[in-house]
What we know:
By secondary structure, the chain is of the alpha/beta class. It is built from 13 helices and 15 strands. It has a six-stranded parallel sheet, with helices on both faces. Strands 7-6-8-9-12 form a five-stranded parallel sheet. A hairpin with a 2-residue loop joins strand 2 and strand 3 (23-24). The longest helix is centred in the middle third of the chain and has 17 residues, at 243-259. It is elongated and about 70 Å long. The protein starts with 7 loop residues before the first strand and ends in a 5-residue tail after the last helix. Mean pLDDT is 85; it is low at 294-320.
Amino acid sequence: MAGSQPTFGLLVDIDGVLVRGKTPIPAAREAFKKIVNPKGEFLMPVVFVTNSGNCVRQAKADQLTGVLGVKISQDQVMMSHSPLRMFKRYHDKCVLVSGQGPVVDIAKSIGFTRIVTIEMLREAFPLLDMMDHDRRPELMPSVPIKLPNIEAIILLCEPVQWETHLQLIIDVLLTGGNPERNPQQLLSSHIPVVACNTDLMWVAEGKSPRFGHGIFVLCLEEIYKKITGKELKYELVLGKPSELTYHYAECLVRAQAAGRGWQKPIDTLYAIGDNLMTDIYGANLYNRYLEEESSAKGSLVQAKVVAGKQTATISQDEDLNVLTSELMQGSATSCKSVLVCTGVYNPCKDDMQGHKELITGPVFHGHRDFRFDADLSDPDYIVPNIDAAVDLIYKLEKYVPN
């Protein structure tokens, strides 16, 4: 379909596909020369879907612009926390945010108005952070700092100084949001917790993958269970492979197409990634949803934000109305998964280890609350890099750029 309006869109992962750490992957620039016209306009909708959560969308767009040599707007970027923009019932709650980077700016950018950081909590309760002897307070604050009761915890991304974050988050959970109280280890429930991204590992410049936010989340879960004897429960788990993440990404694809005046529906999505547990599983899960032609409302009421047993609490009419209006207008009928070999996936290593063992065996890398179907971890296509992925997609779509 030379010169015609596109009927497909791209969902592109960043780490391991476009960059390793701060180092661009050479194939990335070559690939993007093929999907923009001489004016720098994209030839089809492209959304960068990352599980990263340590910056606002504009900062990530600026980074990508430098890496790719193509102007990227923030409307093309989806961070792991981006779907929280739709959950307005949390926006007026007093939330404790954990992560690194400009966490207050990040929280404000997705709608939160009453924000407490770990640093603010530590300043208000200096005697709670005792692991690092060099950081223990010598003097108490001359004027006590009064913080409002914390009503929810938002885990944005992996923090620094894990011991401080883990200790203070546990304190908040055990005291019902007010560390001034004595801990109540036998509370029947705890305040809501939202986890954005449960990636166990990701790739930087090193030869082997690095710890991701999923490792921090795993530590938090195990500490809470060891202390209380109970499972830590989540209101929401976002980021790939969450089905809601792909719903929201399709919203952004539709918005791009509408902004360009393209009338034809985008019926095929191609998700390009390097991680079997997140990129491939999530794309295939969303494809299953599309094939089953489930209504968006039905899917959300059943809380399929996390595949399997874990559910998201979506009971307020306000949230349901917003989600329904945002997500029910999709036109995609399929989501194809394309695995590249420039990141977490290493064909030599993974072939030796055994593909299914990575999914269900003793080295299972999925999150606790996902009930995995091994079939969903099989990519539709495997290619060396993103440049080869673009060539493949053009061939499949019989698309010839002008």
